[in-house]
C-alpha cells in the first residue's frame, strides 16, 4: 500500500529536441524498467507513460506485458510488481484525469526541468507538502525536456537537480530516482527536513 499520494508521469509528447522544436520522443526499455522500479521502491501509486504514437503505445504494452502477464513476470515477480505500476496515457490530460479518478480529487501537477526558474519550488518545500498530505503528479520530460505549453499548464515547477559539477545532463531515470529520494526517501541522519 503506497504511503503517499504521489504519481509520476514520463512524457514523450510534447517534448523538445536540441533545437527547441516540439517533438514526440521514442520510448526506451531502460526508462520504463528503471522508473517503475524506483516508483515501486518509493511508494508511488502509478507511473503514467504518455505518448500519442500508436507504435510507441504498442511497445510500452509489449514491454510491460512481458513482465506483468508473460514469462518475465513468472521468472521475476519483483519486476512484475514494479512494471504493474505503468499506466499508458495518450496525453497529459489523461494522466491527470486517471489520478483524479483514483484520488477523488485533482492532484497538484508539478513539472521537472534541468533549467533554473525563479518561480521554482524547492525540493524541501515539495517534500513538506507531500509529507503533509498534498497529492502530487510529478512530471518528467524525455528528449530535451517538456515543451513550453506543458510547462505553463502545470501548477508548479520544481527546482532542478544539481550535482557538484557544472555538467547538468542527467538521464530522466537518474533524475527521477534522485528526486524520489529527496521528496519521499528517509532523511539522512541529522538532516533537518
Automatic annotation (TrEMBL):
Residues 6-185 form the tRNA (guanine-N(1)-)-methyltransferase C-terminal domain. InterPro entries: Alpha/beta_knot_MTases, RNA_MeTrfase_C_dom, tRNA_m1G_MTases_N. It holds the Pfam family Methyltrn_RNA_4. This is tRNA (guanine-N(1)-)-methyltransferase C-terminal domain-containing protein. It comes from Desulfobotulus alkaliphilus.
Amino acid at each position: 500500500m503506497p504511503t503517499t499520494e504521489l504519481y509520476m508521469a514520463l512524457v514523450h509528447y510534447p517534448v523538445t529536441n536540441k533545437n527547441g522544436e516540439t517533438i514526440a520522443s521514442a520510448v526506451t526499455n531502460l526508462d520504463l524498467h528503471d522508473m517503475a522500479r524506483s516508483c515501486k521502491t518509493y511508494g508511488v501509486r502509478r507511473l503514467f507513460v504518455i505518448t500519442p504514437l500508436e507504435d510507441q503505445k504498442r511497445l510500452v504494452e509489449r514491454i510491460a506485458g512481458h513482465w506483468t502477464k508473460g514469462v518475465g513476470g513468472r521468472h521475476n515477480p519483483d519486476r512484475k510488481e514494479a512494471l504493474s505500476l505503468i499506466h499508458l496515457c495518450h496525453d497529459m490530460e489523461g494522466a491527470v484525469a486517471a489520478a483524479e479518478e483514483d484520488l477523488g480529487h485533482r492532484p497538484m501537477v508539478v513539472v521537472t526541468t534541468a533549467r533554473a526558474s525563479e518561480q521554482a519550488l524547492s525540493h524541501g518545500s515539495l517534500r513538506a507538502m507531500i509529507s503533509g498530505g498534498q497529492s502530487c503528479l510529478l512530471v518528467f520530460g524525455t528528449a530535451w525536456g517538456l515543451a513550453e505549453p506543458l510547462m505553463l499548464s502545470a501548477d508548479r515547477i520544481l527546482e532542478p537537480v544539481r550535482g557538484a559539477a557544472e555538467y547538468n545532463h542527467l538521464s530522466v531515470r537518474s533524475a527521477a530516482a534522485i528526486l524520489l529520494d529527496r521528496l519521499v526517501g528517509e532523511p539522512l541522519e541529522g538532516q533537518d527536513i
